[in-house]
Write a structure and sequence with these properties.
Radius of gyration: 15 Å
Number of helices: 4
Order of helices and strands: EHHEEEHEH
CATH superfamily: Gcn5-related N-acetyltransferase (GNAT)
Strand order of the largest sheet: 1-2-3-4-5
CATH topology: Aminopeptidase
Number of strands: 5
CATH architecture: 3-Layer(aba) Sandwich
Distance between the termini: 48 Å
Oligomer: single chain
Largest sheet: 5 strands, mixed
Length: 156
């Protein structure tokens, strides 16, 4: 892949199926499919952030084919830190990993956050994702703490 072939752009509604197909790669080992994940909920979330500019889905394309995505959100206007950008999903298709696409998506996410006045970008990563952790550290990110998770049952 040459740099000229790679483009990163915000997703459009018509990108939904391809983006959600790519999200499936996050569930492959060492990833885990969330117990309550449904494609319908993913569709709703995707469409929301295509329309609502407090978040976005950034797509990486190589030669017109989807090669990666990053979902970003302006999240928690913290008293201590100011506005935070949360990078929730970062995935590069397995055929395109280690080609610089993840680095470019992370740069695009950082620029997206800067343009929205965020003071920092954060993400969490599953304990088993050792390759991802090395990638993040190699991009200058530092581990700042631990994330704890408590599932909340639906009120239905």
């Amino acid at each position: 892949m040459s740099v000229a072939e790679l483009s990163i752009r915000p997703a459009k509604g018509a990108d939904e199926a391809a983006a959600l197909d790519l999200m499936e790669e996050l569930f492959e080992p060492p990833g885990v499919r969330p117990e309550d994940y449904t494609r319908e909920r993913a569709r709703t979330g995707f469409q929301r952030y295509v329309e609502d500019k407090s978040g976005d889905v950034l797509l990486a394309e190589v030669g017109g084919a989807l090669a990666g995505l990053a979902s970003v959100y302006v999240d928690i206007p913290s008293i201590r830190f100011g506005a935070r950008c949360w990078l929730e999903d970062l995935v590069v298709t397995s055929a395109q990993r280690s080609t610089g696409i993840g680095r470019r998506l992370l740069q695009a996410a950082t620029e997206w956050a800067r343009e929205r006045g965020c003071t920092h970008l954060e993400l969490d990563s599953g304990n088993a994702r050792k390759d991802a952790h090395r990638f993040y550290a190699g991009q200058g990110m530092e581990q700042q703490g631990l994330v704890f998770h408590l599932p909340i049952a639906s009120a239905e």
